[in-house]
Write a structure and sequence with these properties.
Layout lengths: L37 E10 L15 H14 L4 E5 L7 H20 L2 H9 L12 H11 L15 H15 L31 E9 L1
Antiparallel strand pairs: 1-3, 2-3
Helix pairs in contact: 1-5, 2-3, 3-5, 4-5
Length: 217
């Protein structure tokens, strides 16, 4: 298991425990035993608050390095299941829960290469999560310009049709990285443990992180 260090986002490797045999009760022909797979956490990648625009779920360009780190783990632990947790320190618990959940969804959208999820957040602001107020479009334009990626003529607003193309280009910039490593793997929805729809509020967790695990039958 890879332990987290707050300064570097990760710290060293710890050997995984050996799987233990399952003990089951005797059963007749009309009975069955049910085994539940055991989740073995193997890594945790932390997305600090500075990797999002202040008070929003919009990832900054600085998150590119964290996505690259996550991609390295995904290649190392092929087939591992992931779980996303969102958190925000706000005086209002409702605001904190909403922003934490939206940040987790933004990270998931990058992993799924799902621009539509970003557009939903950008065009449906909640509390402080207003991509237009913090000029996320201008920030995306500057990031794409610095990486010689074609831009629209003017900075589009979140509600404009041109914003979809801008958001798509920026999302893939985060996925492709700085070119020194392979791009982030596009994950299918089945790689996630849960979408969180079965809980009224997302669990609290320090910052927004991605935890990878695998199961033993």
């Amino acid at each position: 298991m890879t332990m987290v260090d707050e300064a570097t986002n990760f710290h060293g490797d710890v050997p995984l425990p050996e799987p233990k045999p399952h003990a089951v009760a005797p059963a007749t022909a009309d009975e069955t035993n049910r085994l539940r797979a055991r989740l073995r956490p193997i890594a945790c990648v932390r997305f600090d608050d500075v990797l999002f625009h202040r008070g929003t779920s919009a990832p900054t360009l600085a998150s590119m390095q964290t996505f690259a780190m996550l991609g390295e783990y995904l290649r190392r632990w092929g087939g591992a299941l992931l779980s996303l947790f969102g958190h925000d320190d706000r005086s209002s618990k409702d605001e904190a829960y909403v922003l934490g959940a939206r940040r987790a969804k933004a990270v998931r959208a990058v992993l799924l290469a799902n621009t539509a999820a970003w557009l939903d957040a950008a065009r449906n602001p909640v509390f402080t999560d207003h991509w237009g107020d913090v000029r996320v479009g201008e920030y995306m334009m500057d990031a794409l310009y610095a990486h010689d990626i074609p831009l629209p003529r003017e900075t589009p607003t979140p509600g404009s049709p041109a914003f979809a193309g801008l958001a798509n280009s920026y999302l893939h910039l985060l996925r492709d990285g700085d070119g020194r490593g392979p791009p982030l793997e596009t994950l299918p929805p089945s790689r996630f443990l849960s979408t969180g729809g079965d809980t009224p509020r997302p669990p609290s967790y320090p910052a927004c992180c991605t935890q990878a695990g695998r199961t033993d039958a």
